[in-house]
Design a protein that fits this description.
CATH class of the largest domain: Mainly Alpha
Distance between the termini: 141 Å
Shape: elongated
Strand content: under 5%
Mean pLDDT: 83
Radius of gyration: 30 Å
Number of domains: 2
Strand order of the largest sheet: 1-2
CATH superfamily of the largest domain: Cytochrome c-like domain
Number of helices: 9
Structural class: mainly alpha
Helix content: 40-55%
Order of helices and strands: HHHHHHEEHHH
Length: 258
């Protein structure tokens, strides 16, 4: 009668075979999928490089080192490129004091390729993710306080923009979306300072974005907004219009009296 006894090393042999099979299968799958991801990234970067050489290098230099007509782009990050190109500020139609938003010259795919290429030239802020732009838990009151402290000096308390020195101006934020707002804060376009995470955390930026979105939705309860420039503009409007009405009324009364 044969005894059914297992060898002490049998369990370890089974485990070794199972682990080896699993490892080999994972390696085979990884070897097939990884090159495709790398190839896609390399293709995007190469596309961005070609677009850069064709449309940007004349101002920023062949190696993005900067030139007399444009600053260096080394280390500006993908967020800066996505903001400047995505809003049509770049490429510039003509030299000027300030790049103004216009219809973008590149589509979303081309803009992403340009951003990917510039990102390879030096570390810089990346394009914000959906999680970074999520304002579900943002606080409007705190966002308003942060906005008035850090943004209102240039963009105005109602975010409609304002004049700066040397012919520059802070643009209105009434049409800015969450991604543009976030990218502007981390990249500091033109006269705007950079609000890094050490200055304004991701949560702080979300509070500000939520507050600006609330300002964009608010209607003017008094009727005409008059640009939402504050009491000076409103007082001037009332003075000019009111004085005009009084002059017309005085002329009419004088004409009727004759």
């Amino acid at each position: 009668m044969a005894l059914n006894k297992r060898h002490p090393a049998a369990l370890f042999a089974v485990l070794a075979v199972a682990l080896g099979t699993t490892g080999a299968a994972y390696a085979a799958v990884s070897s097939q999928t990884a090159p495709k991801v790398v190839a896609k990234t390399e293709t995007q970067v190469e596309q961005g490089k070609q677009l850069y050489l064709e449309g940007c290098s004349s101002c920023h230099g062949l190696a993005a080192q900067g030139a007399s007509d444009g600053p260096s782009l080394i280390g500006v990050g993908a967020a800066s490129v996505d903001f400047q190109v995505g809003t049509g500020r770049m490429p510039l139609a003509a030299p000027g004091v300030q790049a103004m938003p216009k219809m973008p010259s590149y589509n979303e795919e081309e803009t992403a390729a340009l951003a990917a290429y510039i990102a390879t030239l030096g570390a810089g802020p990346g394009i914000p993710t959906a999680e970074m732009l999520d304002t579900t838990n943002a606080e409007l009151a705190l966002g308003g306080e942060l906005f008035r402290t850090n943004c209102a000096q240039c963009h105005g308390a109602s975010a409609v923009g304002g004049a700066l020195s040397e012919g520059r101006k802070a643009p209105s934020l009434m049409d800015a979306d969450a991604k543009n707002l976030y990218e502007a804060m981390v990249s500091g376009p033109q006269s705007m300072p950079v609000f890094a995470d050490s200055t304004l955390s991701v949560e702080d930026k979300q509070h500000i974005i939520a507050y600006v979105a609330e300002l964009q939705k608010n209607e003017s309860p008094g009727g005409f907004s008059l640009g939402r420039q504050g009491p000076v503009t409103e007082g001037l409007f009332i003075f000019v219009v009111g004085l005009g009405v009084l002059i017309v009324a005085a002329v009419w009364i004088g004409a009727k009296a004759k």
